Automatic annotation (TrEMBL):
Key words, A-Z: Cell membrane, Glycoprotein, Ion channel, Ion transport, Ligand-gated ion channel, Membrane, Signal, Transmembrane, Transmembrane helix, Transport
MF annotations from Gene Ontology: chloride channel activity; extracellular ligand-gated monoatomic ion channel activity; ligand-gated monoatomic anion channel activity; transmembrane signaling receptor activity
A Pfam family matched in the record: Neur_chan_LBD
Domain Neurotransmitter-gated ion-channel ligand-binding residues, every copy: 33-257
Catalytic reaction equation(s): chloride(in) = chloride(out)
Source species, domain of life: Eukaryota
Topological category with respect to the lipid bilayer: Multi-pass membrane protein
Subcellular location: Cell membrane
GO CC, one annotated term: plasma membrane
Protein name, entry field: pH-sensitive chloride channel 2
Family, similarity comment: Belongs to the ligand-gated ion channel (TC 1.A.9) family.
Domain Neurotransmitter-gated ion-channel transmembrane stretches: 267-480
Amino acid sequence: MRKIVLLVFVLYTSAQASPFDCPSLGDGDSLSQTQLLERLTHSCRYDRLERPITYTEKGSRLPVDVYVRWYIYFMQNLEAHDLQFKIHALLQFRFLDPRLIFRKVSPKRSQPILGEANLRDILWMPHIFLANERDSSIMGTNEKDILTSVSLDGTVIISSRITATLYCWMSLQKFPFDEQHCSTYLESWMYNTSELILHWEQKRPITFNPDVHLTEYVLKQIWSNESTINADLNDLRHGAFAGNYSSLSFTVQLTREVGFYVMDYFLPSMLIVGASWVSFWLQADQAAPRLMLGTSTMLTFITLASAQGKTLPKVSYIKVSEVWFLGCTLFIFGSLLEFAFVNTIWRRTSNVDVKKLKSKYILRSTLSPRLYETTTFRQHSADSVSMTANSVSERPHTAVNCKNYLTKPNMQTDGGVATEETRKFYEFDIGLMEEGGDENVHEKRNSWTTLTPQEISQWIDAKARVMFPIAFIIFNVLFWTFVYTF
């Protein structure tokens, strides 16, 4: 009961208040800007906590239209390891507040009322925030870097110089030949779309200072967007309030400059890979210089690759730069394996019989010399099976000729029957004897060539001098085609 009586008393007192409690707006031309603003924003006619209200012809309330403009003074390069970028910008809001119209009360004024932070503090402000910010602040001091303007028709313009660190998710699959799209989001905090709607200014809403230059990127394109964000209890960006909130965003497309990476990583890595091929011109028994050259190039390349990777976040997918470094590492490692292979062959003590001086026969004889010894033995064993005792006594020189070939003391056959290789050689030998006798057989057998381990090692090095550069050129063609095509 006491509360009801007190409320009635307060309402009665307000109704009987003197008109002098609410200052008059008459003769506004004789007032200073400060006096005029004090009367316009007096508590009897202005509530700073309540948004400006306008009505349609039917009497329904309209939301406040807030127009936004960005002017970018400075933009810092994207920091890939932190996935962020930094900007210094002028952020400007423009809206209409009918309560601040002073054209009629001060008809002689033609200029807007200007002020700084103190003027902004007595006016209603739309609560707008950067949705993807990591940090933001007013540049300089609050007094110096905030400009507030109130026009004759009640248009309020708030301009603030801010510095902001913004989050930008980067896709690094094609690093360092990548393009990044970084967005900046502005959203209404406490007023949903029924009370406040954000718009971009119609003319040049986003402008960059002509003196803005990025050292690592080139600014290709800018586009803006207006949208609505639906917030619920699962999304607390707008506090505990659910509803639809107005949002603005602008996106910049940045293309990375590859000159630095080409000069500091790609060209040096090509030279390091080429330096590893110098070992092919060194003799196979020179183990110390070849081993030192191979290991030094490998360690140098690993240091180069790790230096480049320190500036990037540890992502789960494979980047183009990693494909390049992996390919170059395989070429350097391949040169080390080639040295180990030819050095092992060089240290062999027995010669190798080669059927023909062709790559496949030389490699087969080198990789499996015992297999060729067994094959040769089976061929000569076939001779002994095909010859009768009489032919042996009539042609004693055959046994002398067989001394030119490797033999084994015994030959194992399956069930007393010669193997398929023995049978083929037997038929071949009989055919030669029918054509020209033992002289043709002897000539055919002597067509085999004996190579020393040193000759084989030199032959492998000679092939490597050609095959490694050709393979590396093919790798470069495939790599750079993928980079600039896909």
